[in-house]
Amino acid sequence: MDAEEPQPTIEESAAVAPACEVVDVRFRVAGRAGAYDAAALELQRHDLVVVQTERGPELGEVIGHPRPRWDVEQDARLPRVLRRADGRDLSRADHNRAQERRAYGVFASLAARHRLDAKLIRVDYRFDGGKAVFYFMAEARIDFRGLVRDLAQALHTRIEMRQIGARDETRLVGGVGPCGRELCCSSWLREFAAVSVKMAKEQDLSLNPSKLAGMCGRLKCCLRYEYDTYLSLRRGLPGVGKKVKSVKGDGEVVKHLTLKQHVLLRRDEDGLIVECTLEDLVERRPEPRE
Fold first, then answer.
1. At the top level of CATH, which class does the domain 90-164 belong to?
2. Among 159, 138, 148, which residue's Cα sits nearest to residue 114?
3. pTM of the full structure
C-alpha cells in the first residue's frame, strides 16, 4: 500500500497561495472604477468602503471578491482602502444626496436668471462636501462664470461645471441596452473610443440606423468589440469579386461567411451560388503570418 503524501501545513499553504490583497471599487460617478489595496481589511463584494483618491476620500462599493494582484499591478503603488464605511460615513453620504437634490432647484433658478440655455444632467457632491460638480448639456459653449459665482454663494461650497455630450449623458443617467444588460458605459467602460459605420460593414451587420444606434443616439460602443477579430479572420479569405477555382466549380467570390471561414461562390458554369470552405478552394490566400 502506497504511503499517503504529507499534506501541507497551513503556513505552507499560505506561502503558496497568492494573497488576496486587492479589491475593485466602483464609485457613484458611472463607469469610474479602480483597483485598491485592501490592506488588512476583510472585505466582500457589495461592501461600502472609504478609499483614498487624488480628490481626497471617496465612498465606493466593492464590485468583486478580493483577488491577488494581476501581473500589471505587481509593481504598481495602488491607493488604499481607508476603512469600511461606518454609520457616520453613510450619514454624510445621505446628507450629500440631499444637498444634490437641493442643488437641482438652485441651478434651475439661477440659470433662468442668467438666461443660460443649459440642461442639468447630474450634480455630484464630493464625499467631504468641499465641492459640487455640475454636469450639464448645452447646444453651444456658454459663459457660466456668473452662474458659478451665484451657485457658490447659495450652496456654500466650491463649484465645478462640466459640459458633456450625448454619450456622457447616457453614462451618467444609465439604463439597459437592447441586449438586456446594463449599458457598458454606465457599468464598466471607462473611456469612449471612436466607432464608425465601417465597423458594422466589416461585421456584415444591417446598416439600419435604428439598430446601430445606442441609447445615446450615437453608434453603439459594442461595434468595436469584435471588429479586430473580423479583420483578422478576413485576411485568410479571398476578396469579394475575386475569381477562384474550387472543387465545386470555378467562379467569383460574392460574399464572406467570416466566422465560419467559408465563402459564397457564384459558379461560372451555371451562375449557381455555392458555399465553399477554404479546403474546397484550389487556389486561396496563404495563411496570415503571426
1. alpha beta
2. 148
3. 0.69
